[in-house]
Write a structure and sequence with these properties.
It comes from Streptomyces pactum. InterPro entries: CBS_dom (IPR000644), CBS_dom_sf (IPR046342), Diverse_CBS-Domain (IPR051257). This is CBS domain-containing protein. The protein is an alpha/beta fold. The protein has one domain: CBS-domain. The chain is built from seven helices and seven strands; from the N terminus they run αββαββααβαββαα. The strands form two sheets. A four-stranded mixed sheet has the order 1-7-6-5. β6 (101-106) and β7 form a beta hairpin. The longest helix has 12 residues, at 125-136.
Length: 139
């Protein structure tokens, strides 16, 4: 059985909810990633911040990324998957919620992220095509 831990990109990092968006953008640049999980005071997942969130939800709205926090951008219920979950569960979670990045949690701690690129490296071409159809097709 292939698990989430088998296909994830290990070493994902949190951004604390009180951190500003300009700092989050710097972390994304340094890590060469497009999304960061947001943690609360107890290092629990409380959201995910994407580079698009920063641009569209902050900069394009005329807000200052040096004064808006990651927590200000956290909306909805964050989705995640256990490290020992089967890859079919990973696909189901991402497809059902139409998300492109999924934090991987083990013992209530962040251990990695699964992105579309990770799926492309570990799934067959047919599985990737089916995933893309479900994520990008109009609902």
């Amino acid at each position: 059985m292939t698990t989430a831990a088998d296909i994830m990109h290990p070493g994902a990092q949190w951004i604390p909810r009180w951190e500003t968006l300009d700092r989050a953008a710097q972390v994304m640049r340094d890590l060469d990633v497009g999304a960061l999980p947001i943690s609360d005071e107890n290092e629990r997942l409380c959201g995910i911040l994407t580079d698009r969130d920063i641009v569209v939800g902050c900069v394009a709205m005329g807000h200052d990324p040096a004064s808006v926090t990651a927590g200000d951008m956290a909306k909805g219920t964050p989705r995640w998957i256990n490290a020992d979950a089967d890859v079919s569960e990973v696909l189901h979670e991402m497809e059902e919620h139409r998300i492109r990045r999924l934090p991987v949690i083990d013992n209530k701690r962040l251990v990695g992220m699964i992105s579309e690129a990770d799926l492309a490296r570990h799934l067959t071409d047919e599985e990737v095509a089916e995933f893309a159809q479900r994520i990008y097709a109009a609902s």
